[in-house]
Amino acid sequence: MHNPQLNKNGELTHLLTIEGLPRAVVTQILDTASSFVGISDREVKKVPLMRGKSVFNLFFENSTRTRTTFEIASKRLSADVINLNISASSASKGESLLDTIDNLAAMHADMFVVRHAQSGAPYLIAKHLTDTGRSHVHVVNAGDGRHAHPTQGLLDMYTIRHYKKDFSNLTVAIVGDILHSRVARSDIHALTTLGVPEVRAIGPRTLLPSGLEQLGVRVFTDMREGLKDVDVIIMLRLQNERMSGALLPSAQEYFKSYGLTTERLALAKPDAIVMHPGPMNRGVEIESAVADGAQAVILPQVTFGIAVRMAVMSIIAGN
Ligand code: CP
What we know:
Heterododecamer (2C3:3R2) of six catalytic PyrB chains organized as two trimers (C3), and six regulatory PyrI chains organized as three dimers (R2). With 319 residues, the protein is α/β, with parallel strands linked by helices. Helix content is 36%, strand content 14%. It has helices at 23-37, 65-76, 97-105, 121-131, 150-164, 182-193, 223-227, 251-258, 262-265, 288-291, 298-318, and strands at residues 54-59, 80-84, 111-116, 138-144, 171-175, 198-202, 217-220, 232-235, 273-275. Phosphoric acid mono(formamide)ester binds at residues 63-66, 143, 149, 152, 277-279.
């Protein structure tokens, strides 16, 4: 089946999801990101790879890390970056998503970075641009509903490779609200694409989607069993805004069973790393002593996100 994010030469022209991306493309992004990591230490923190290009940040949903690091990444690539203030835009007056896109494309946009509460919104935009003869305008998914958050998945892979060097002998546990998590889905696709032999999902039954086993994931409802001897722990936030109805007794009860405490972390390998995409709820999914502890790599994840987003944008713009 045709992958809408690749051109006829198999090169990335949009980034919509990690699902179905060839391993070579994922590795190309991680390798390119490596070449950008050192740029922050240089006196001039810029390269001219996207000079003269206009990147429009369209965040229809709140964001701290993704929006800001896309802006920094665009500036480091020498692009002009425009942050549309959605609440002050005509979207708040009832303008349709595609009418907004048409108007911004008329301002000679070269790339849209899109976050939207509706799964599939970035696909819709990419298809609309292609159908209307503007396939030279690129779309990067910055998180759509509960579907995908591909640049988060890629920066998570970058972080794992940085600390663990090799994917081929790792056990990685993803813990928490997997049902509503676009990060979990992107991480699972990325980890299996990169050949991680054991990917675990740990959470209460009400927050575990069906079909995980078909994706090659081992499912655990007991935190102690699931954490045993893992190399990497990816903690997730309870996505209360995406839950309909009560799926949990309370945040306190959740922490008792699934919170990552120092005691539970000791079940993992001694050199295990702790990751979290943010935003983090201390005392709900993670204890502060763990979040701020020596095994946490949560802030390096954010820093690596700049290089990974530079890599994604420069590769796509070059294709
Ligand atoms: N990880 C992540 O997507 O965080 P933000 O919502 O702050 O962008």
